[in-house]
# Entry
Amino acid sequence: MKARILGCSGGIGGRHLRTTSILVNHDVLIDAGTGVADLSMAELAMIDHVFLTHTHLDHIAALPLMIDTVGDMRDKPLIVHGTEAVLQILRNHIFNWAVWPDFSEIPTAEAPFLQFRPLRVGQKIRLGELTVAAVPAEHTVPAVGYHLDSGAGSLVFTGDTTVNDRFWPVVNRIGNLRHLIIECAFSNREERLARISKHMCPDMLAAELMKLERDCEIHITHLKPGQIELTMGELATCIGDFKPHMLQTNVVLEF
# Structure
């Protein structure tokens, strides 16, 4: 299977900076940040499932517009998966008729453009040959990461998270792990801010990766635009043995 990175930046401001979203094959999205806006209408209409890690704007910004754009081009609802806490935040604060129409009732409650589907950490959802499972994350709002398994290989995306001892036992049980996409939002000079906002900086990430017991490719995501070179330089110093890759828009990861 192929995971195409539509966006992986911790912000905007440059020609190629898009916020978090990953397109798996052609019909599954992991998060719906600003990178989704680069897809054509035909590509948007082919997406059947969106799995959300959490509800911060950089991870959901394109979702309301996407549904509005292609809802009437589809013959079935777009399924939005998330924990019950995540879905409740969407209902209360986004699809609430004040910020955006409630597309779970449009055009009718019986045949809506959008359907919310709750999931639990550890629950496995089978979509053809792809299995998706939520994994633990630790952030300032309810959050998860995702384990994507094709059978032949696995990709794990941490989502936004900080130090999290619940995460690593799950990852270490994945025998076919190929890719680990892990966040590092801040440089070491911003460690205090990283801890307050429940993100990572290089020194924190180095300590976390000592808990990894699997060989896999490490991909760094969610870098803040103004600190990319500084943060990647610090990562080269403290986790260079892991040969980390800076994730970039339009990279395709096979698993």
Q: What stands out?
A: Residues 228-239 form the longest helix (12 residues). The domain at 2-252 is CATH 3.60.15.10 (Metallo-beta-lactamase; Chain A). The first strand starts at residue 2 and ends at 7. The two ends are 5 Å apart (CA to CA).
